[in-house]
Amino acid sequence: MRVDNAVIMAAGTSSRFAPLSYEKHKALTVVKGEVLIERQIRQLHEAGIKDVYIVTGYKAEQFGYLASEHNVKLIHNSEYLTRNNNGSIRAAREVLNNSYICSSDNYFNINPFEQDVDDSYYAAEYSDGPTDEWCLEEDGSGYIRKVTVGGRDSWYMMGHTFWREDFSAEFLRILDETYDTPATRDNLWEKLFADHLDVLRMKIRKYDPGVIFEFDTLDELRRFDDSYVEDSRSEILRRTADELGIKQSEIVNINVIKSGSAEASGFEFDCPLGHRQILY
């Protein structure tokens, strides 16, 4: 079937990417010379998917240029701080049909998108040994029959997904029925999918290692793009390193510090001077 459009979710705060995400949305990070979300838009356009929507929330103002420069449409998720990513799915409900659903922080080494797709699927890579990712089991026809958080020697969710028109309609029906329940508020849309595998039929699209990348932390980004080792592109880290008399490369294992609310109040890290905390 012909793909109607793509929805790229870019509403989240990406707190694990602190402190870079305090200054710029993670989706706008330059990786190997190209802005993450711009690369994804380009790949979609090259595959013939011209109708692209970006769901914004955190630092939404930073995405305004994409509409004019890259011919995309912006949808705002006003609930980005109070709900998990199911809020972004609901914000885009009017455009969901035969649709790609993408995460704005994925880097695809080769273009995974196609103009025609046979069935709903979730992209996956294989883990040799243990993993904390969402692991998948398939039935004899290739449809996902079980989802578990964590496992070993298993295919796991990684990257984009495609929703066929009937999948989109059924998912939105279930989301509407459960949207106001406390549990749904904090859940990923994938949890809702995993709870309704009997009616939400989706296959696994298997990819070789080295095709799909995701950078949850600065340390992970540094392993992929070593230009970030000495220059994090972060004024906060540059200033922190200067004040401590160390190199930016010596600031590692960064974790966000949160107050009682969803807002970050600083970050902590390891360096040659020991464990340090920076509060705002």
Strand order of the largest sheet: 5-4-1-6-9-8-10
Under CATH, the topology of the largest domain can be stated as Spore Coat Polysaccharide Biosynthesis Protein SpsA, Chain A
Q: Helical segment tally?
A: 9
The CATH architecture of the largest domain comes to Alpha-Beta Complex
Distance between the termini: 51 Å
Structural class: alpha/beta
Helix residue percentage = 25-40%
Q: Report on the biggest sheet.
A: 7 strands, mixed
Overall morphology: globular
Full CATH superfamily name of the largest domain: Spore Coat Polysaccharide Biosynthesis Protein SpsA, Chain A
Query: Which stretches are low in confidence, meaning pLDDT under 50 for 5 or more residues running?
Result: none
Mean pLDDT across the residues is: 95
User: What string, H for helix and E for strand, traces the elements in order?
Assistant: EHEEHEHEHEEEEHHHEEHHEEE
Describe the structure.
With about 280 residues, the protein is α/β, with parallel strands linked by helices. The protein folds into 2 domains: about 5-215, Spore Coat Polysaccharide Biosynthesis Protein SpsA, Chain A, CATH 3.90.550; about 230-280, no CATH class. The protein has helices at about 20-25, 35-45, 65-70, 85-90, 165-180, 180-185, 190-195, 220-225, 235-245, and strands at about 5-10, 30, 35, 50-55, 75, 100-105, 105-110, 120-140, 145-165, 205, 210-215, 250-260, 265-270, 275-280. It has a 7-stranded mixed β-sheet with strand order 5-4-1-6-9-8-10. A 3-stranded antiparallel β-sheet has the order 12-13-14, with no helix packed on it. It is globular, with a radius of gyration of 19 Å. The mean pLDDT is about 95.
